[in-house]
């Protein structure tokens, strides 16, 4: 029997602002994403130097997941939290940077540190490493945020006991334009968002 | 040699995005990997690129890297002895 699932928390990152469960928790004057993400990292006193080595897409996914997962993850036990993310531009922002770095045949020094981010699902790896997750993870590419698909996919993972919690959402980054919307879903009853679904929260 | 060591520290901080580390934080004999600066395998590949790009040194035997990249001191000594630019 299919059990009902509930949105537990959600976060939106766009336009130099982070909104958690409807409340603005970080907002700065307009700046580029590199500066915004660094300021957010400092503001939330995150201690994870590897953050600075990540590409923009991974930083975006990392910041969103950090604020949603940190209260949930326990170091003492295995955390069965599946990650299901999607976007439109895949890792194109980094792909372009990498391509530019190898376009001059007389100055051909490909950077391994840039190359490793030329796949969108690397951001799932970064989140998994950070929270020691060994759970299901999938990254989809869609023209637009397909909330119905992600909602169904998350429900299947939860109802087949593949995951206790699903972190799902949209992490789009290209040419310094970005939007992240992430939410945690589980079977634990939470009436806070009973009149909402991923789509309505995403469009708030 | 002293100038080369400072140059290497600067390059490592910039290239490897060691955001919270300054030149003063890196002692010449500090291990670059493990308990020292905590660099990882991708960083090791970037160090190989630095040798090639900035000093004209191509590492033919990757095993050599373990000795060369032990510290700033060992890197500077190797570069001084083998640089072509």
Task: Please provide a written account of the structure.
The complex is a heterodimer of chains A (204) and B (85). The two termini of chain A are 32 Å apart. Chain A has one domain (6-202): Thiolase/Chalcone synthase (Peroxisomal Thiolase, Chain A, domain 1), CATH 3.40.47. Chain A is an alpha/beta fold. Chain A is 33% helix and 25% strand. Chain B has one domain (2-82): ACP-like (Non-ribosomal Peptide Synthetase Peptidyl Carrier Protein, Chain A). The longest helix of chain B is centred in the middle third of the chain and has 15 residues, at 41-55. Chain B is globular, with a radius of gyration of 12 Å. The mean pLDDT of chain B is 92. The chains are: A alpha/beta (204), B mainly alpha (85).
Number of domains of chain A: 1
CATH fold-level assignment of chain B: Non-ribosomal Peptide Synthetase Peptidyl Carrier Protein, Chain A
Largest sheet of chain A: 7 strands, mixed
Overall pLDDT score of chain A: 94
Low-confidence stretches of chain B: none
Spatial shape of chain A: globular
Question: What structural class should be given to the helix and strand makeup of chain B?
Answer: mainly alpha
Kindly give the count of domains of chain B: 1
Order of helices and strands of chain A: EEEHHEHHHEHEEH
List the helices and strands and how they pair.
The complex is a heterodimer of chains A (204) and B (85).
Chain A: E1 6-14, E2 17-20, E3 23-27, H1 33-43, H2 56-69, E4 81-87, H3 92-101, H4 112-115, H5 122-131, E5 137-141, H6 147-159, E6 165-174, E7 177-186, H7 198-202
Parallel strand pairs in A: 4-5, 4-6
Antiparallel strand pairs in A: 1-2, 1-7, 2-3, 6-7
Chain B: H1 2-15, H2 41-55, H3 64-68, H4 72-82
Helix pairs in contact in B: 1-4
């Amino acid at each position: 029997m299919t059990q009902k699932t509930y949105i537990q928390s959600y976060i939106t990152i766009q336009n130099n602002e982070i909104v958690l469960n409807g409340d603005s928790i970080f907002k700065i004057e307009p700046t580029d994403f590199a500066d915004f993400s660094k300021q957010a990292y400092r503001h939330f006193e995150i201690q994870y130097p590897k953050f600075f080595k990540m590409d923009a897409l991974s930083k975006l996914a990392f910041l969103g997941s950090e604020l949603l997962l940190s209260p949930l993850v326990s170091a003492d036990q295995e955390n069965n939290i599946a990650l299901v993310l999607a976007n439109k531009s895949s890792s194109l922002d980094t792909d372009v940077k990498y391509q530019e770095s190898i376009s001059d045949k007389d100055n051909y020094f490909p950077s391994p540190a840039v190359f490793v981010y030329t796949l969108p699902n690397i951001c799932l790896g970064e989140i998994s490493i950070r929270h020691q997750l060994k759970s299901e993870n999938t990254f989809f590419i869609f023209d637009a945020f397909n909330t119905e698909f992600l909602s169904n996919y998350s429900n299947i993972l939860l109802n087949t006991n593949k995951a206790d919690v699903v972190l799902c959402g949209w992490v789009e980054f290209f040419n310094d334009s970005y939007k992240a919307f992430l939410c945690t879903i589980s079977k634990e009853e939470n009436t806070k968002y009973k009149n909402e679904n991923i789509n309505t929260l995403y469009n708030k | 040699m002293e100038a080369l060591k400072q140059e290497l520290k600067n390059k490592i901080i910039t290239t490897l995005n060691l955001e919270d580390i300054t030149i003063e934080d890196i002692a010449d004999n500090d291990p670059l990997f493990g308990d020292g600066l905590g660099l990882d395998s991708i960083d090791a590949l970037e160090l190989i690129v630095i040798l090639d790009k900035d000093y004209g040194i191509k590492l033919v035997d990757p095993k050599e890297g373990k000795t060369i990249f032990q510290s700033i001191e060992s890197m500077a000594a190797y570069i001084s002895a083998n640089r072509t630019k």
